[in-house]
TrEMBL record:
It is a multi-pass membrane protein. Its EC number is 1.6.99.5. GO terms for molecular function: antiporter activity; NADH dehydrogenase (ubiquinone) activity; oxidoreductase activity. It comes from Exiguobacterium sibiricum (strain DSM 17290 / CCUG 55495 / CIP 109462 / JCM 13490 / 255-15). Its main location: membrane. This is NADH dehydrogenase (Quinone). InterPro entries: CPA3_Na-H_Antiporter_D (IPR050586), NADH_UbQ_OxRdtase (IPR003918), ND/Mrp_TM (IPR001750).
Length: 494
């Protein structure tokens, strides 16, 4: 099926347009959105199967072949990330039906989520650097709607900061793409990868590499560009926070992974070393923030920053083993972060507050919630045999293979400190003296727990079934290690 890579983009696009026609039909919005996202999952599973069987799939829009036209490229990395994204959005929509009030859901919520899915899937699939910018803007515009959902003063205040940061980042993105086009004369990522090796201007290429690092680093929240994230992610409702925490920063990470493997793999002395040191600093800052706060949202928000650092350290090492670890851990973190945010959303809904001092003894009345959170926390920290352990093990081994001692040590120590930070929620929230709770969601725990439990089960299976998943991860890493595979698939003559 030659147009298969288009389906994960067309389905949410058509769904979003249809939902616009029925803004006040809430039951219809829920049903259509849920069914549509399920169809996206089915299409993406078939896409992963097709890429596994036939190799990299490409679609050229308007019959203009690359590098002149717009190309969508589904390699295994793209297909796996699109599948993970579609799964997360499905479970978040399911969770939102019970968590958000009808008023919030009527505020174009499902429309914004569908366009967010379109933008994220498009960013993962595009083979054109300018269209990556376009898809970034699609999901960012959707995120502007979602971050103010509810209209509280704190949301409006933080949304201005979020909007300003992303406007600056987007402007810099356009300028960087223009600079790259002026040097290379192409926007096709495969064509750029092919031609950039012929440019004997290492100084200019290093500047472009740093500019891309700033652009994607702002969106991915790496050190020192993370300052906007803790405040901005604190204010939206929990389902929106789950989407933001699991997806939006990961698109920035994907941008660095894709550009640094395709464009700048031939000159790693400066760019990748810089990326490595910033990644380690990101881990340290995230850990400090997670240990310093006593707010359940903030603990997990700072752990987003830690995970970004761990993944990018694996990218900076640029060995096959470290890249396999980075890709494995990227998918793991998308799943587990969404699950954890949904779980703490249930805790906040019961307690009516996100502060740990307002929680305690929940294990007595909500044992399934408590033990599900416990398993998810162990997976986040990387305790074997859960999925977080496999990704970190590969990254650490890749670091040692490259002759680095500092990076693997930082990653290993961060695992212990991450475990301590998330166990604070388990110990203080679920144990201790039981409290009387009057939160608005205390009677809906079964409905809210079901999608979160499904996500945790998926992360457990992802870790236990590593041997089954490993060939897919290996195939995803092939074009990162050998960009000629990507180039030949996109620029081949029909």
């Amino acid at each position: 099926m030659i147009n298969l890579p288009l389906l994960p983009l067309l389905i949410p696009l058509i769904t979003g347009v249809i939902l616009m026609l029925f803004p006040n039909r809430l039951r219809l919005q829920r049903s259509v959105s849920l069914v549509s996202t399920f169809l996206t999952i089915v299409a993406t599973i078939y896409l992963v199967y097709s890429v596994r069987k036939d190799g990299i799939l490409t679609v050229t829009l308007g019959s203009w072949p690359a590098p002149f036209g717009i190309t969508l490229v589904s390699d295994m990395l793209s297909a796996l990330l699109v599948l993970t994204t579609s799964l997360l959005v499905f479970f978040v929509i399911w969770y939102s039906m019970y968590y958000l009030s009808d008023l919030h859901q009527r505020f174009y919520y499902y429309i914004a989520v569908q366009f967010l899915l379109l933008g994220v899937n498009g960013a993962f699939t595009t083979g054109d650097i300018f269209n990556m910018f376009v898809f970034f803007e699609v999901f960012l515009i959707s995120s502007y709607v979602l971050i103010v959902l509810g209209g509280k003063p704190a949301q409006l205040r933080e949304s201005l900061k979020y909007l300003l940061i992303n406007v600056i980042s987007s402007a810099l993105f356009v300028m960087t793409v223009a600079f790259l086009y002026g040097v290379i004369g192409s926007l096709s990522m495969a064509d750029i990868s092919q031609k950039i090796t012929e440019i004997n201007q290492p100084g200019i290429l290093s500047v472009i590499a740093v500019l891309f690092l700033i652009v994607f680093g702002l969106k991915g929240a790496i050190f020192p560009l993370y300052f906007w994230l803790p405040g901005s992610y604190q204010v939206p409702p929990t389902p929106v926070l789950a989407l933001f925490g699991a997806l939006l920063t990961k698109v920035g990470v994907y941008g660095i992974l894709r550009t640094y493997s395709l464009f700048f793999s031939h000159q790693q002395q400066f760019t990748h070393q810089l990326l490595g040191w910033l990644a380690l600093a990101t881990i340290v800052i995230g850990v400090i923030g997670a240990l310093a706060t006593r707010d359940v949202k903030q603990i997990l928000i700072y752990n987003i920053i830690v995970a970004v650092g761990v993944i990018l350290y694996g990218v900076s090492v640029m060995t096959r083993q470290s890249l396999e670890g980075a890709v494995f851990y990227l998918i793991h973190d998308m799943l587990i972060k969404a699950a954890l945010f949904l779980l703490i959303g249930v805790m906040i809904g019961i307690a009516g507050s996100s502060r740990l001092k307002d929680m305690g003894g929940m294990i007595k009345d909500y044992p399934l919630l408590g033990w599900t959170y416990f398993i998810a926390a162990l997976s986040l920290a990387g305790i074997p045999p859960l999925s977080g352990f496999i990704g970190k093990l590969l990254i650490v081994r890749g670091g040692f293979e490259a002759g680095d001692l500092v990076g693997p040590f930082v990653v290993l120590i961060s695992s212990l400190l991450v475990l301590y930070s998330v166990m604070q929620i388990f110990i203080r929230g679920f144990w201790g003296t039981p409290k009387t709770y009057s939160g608005p969601k205390r009677h809906l725990t079964k409905q809210l727990l079901a999608p979160a439990l499904a996500l945790v089960a998926m992360t457990v299976l992802y870790g236990i079934g590593t041997e089954a998943v490993r060939p897919l991860i290996s195939q995803a890493v092939d074009p990162l290690v050998d960009p000629t595979l990507y180039i030949q698939a996109v620029l081949r003559e029909d």
